[in-house]
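To whoever picks this up:

The nightly regression suite flagged Dicarboxylate/amino acid:cation symporter as changed. Nothing in the input moved, so I suspect the structure step. Input below, exactly as stored in the fixture:
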Amino acid sequence: MTSSVPAPAPLGAPDAPGDPAGPARRSRFGLLPRILLAIVLGVLLGLVMPEAIARVFTTFNGIFSSFLGFLIPLIIVGLVTPAIAELGRGAGKMLAATTGIAYLSTILAGGFALTVALLVLPRMLDGVSVGSLDNPEDSAIAPYFEIGIPPVLDVMTALVLSFCLGIGLTVVRPGALQESFVQLRDIVVKTIEAALIPLLPIYIFGMFLGLTMNGQIWIVIGTFLAVIVLVFTMTILVLLAQYGVAGLATGQNPLRMLARMAPAYATALGTSSSAATIPVTLECTKRNGVPAAIADFVVPLCATIHLAGSTLKITTFSVAIMIITGMDLNLPVLIGFVFMLGVVMIAAPGVPGGAIMAAAGILSSMLGFGEAAVGLMIASYIAIDSFGTATNVTGDGAIAAVMGRLSRGRVSGDLSADETPHVQGV
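Regenerated output under the current build:
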């Protein structure tokens, strides 16, 4: 039986005739090349730019980060609540299924990383000893001024509120409240379109400029180059496995599905933030044929609870640091650490460095990391945070595809019509 979901359009495909959001509204220079250009310029200009000018971009990044932190809960409420409501009856089961799949994906990635790390790293790091490093955030170029924009809700409160309201709206008669959340979604999409997407490349440029001028990237890469290569290889294998499952579930070519997620991967590579990448991840996910009602529900949710890439990276670097500092590799403790890490990642904010900050507590309590080891872990993680984040958000698209397949016949909402506005400029 053929699906009623329209065939996904490839990235960069011409607009359909009569498309109101046609070439006149779309950028001729897509988001992916803009992000790549921002990364290259950030690294190159970081070698020569005077600090006084660099502080302008640091100031912008601070303001943008505050604005982003303010918007993240609104993005979650504005997208997740109406998405759950539009799923209709069965939304609660879909929520439980999504959470279960996200947790399973996270701990499988952590288990895979632990297995490879225990087999490979003892030989790879034989005789290696590294001193402690400062947290790269502590040596960041100071902004000229800061503007704090406190969020109305924290991320977890926004998620719980969205679940309660969304599921509640599925059991009452549609009315003004549901229409209000649909309008809120439109406002959120337009804010993303007008503010976040155009400013993302500047934000990414400022991040790479600061990291290059601080020298933290080169220190950590020089110290852990072999571990970084191993982590990157494992993230690719994890993504191939995730999209292999998604391809089997949807009947699509997994490599093509993965290719359509390239803008989301590149955006996360630059922002190191799952939350900042939500708009791009949503658009790429819909281009893989995932119904808007499912994508708008799964992607913002998974941006907070699905951190397979971060778990993989934290697990690998934890074992590496235990080896180079002479700590005992206790297998039962490490296995328990991976399972607990999957739980802790649910509470991690989707901002740069959020995962390692959330994990710092169990690094100390479960693995016995002292202050120096935690500092080394933070320095190692944050300097290459983007690779784990890129794996996280790209994997969100695979989970959304699987949930799109599982949702057929299990929810009462319309999963064939894509009435949600697409984010332009992606």
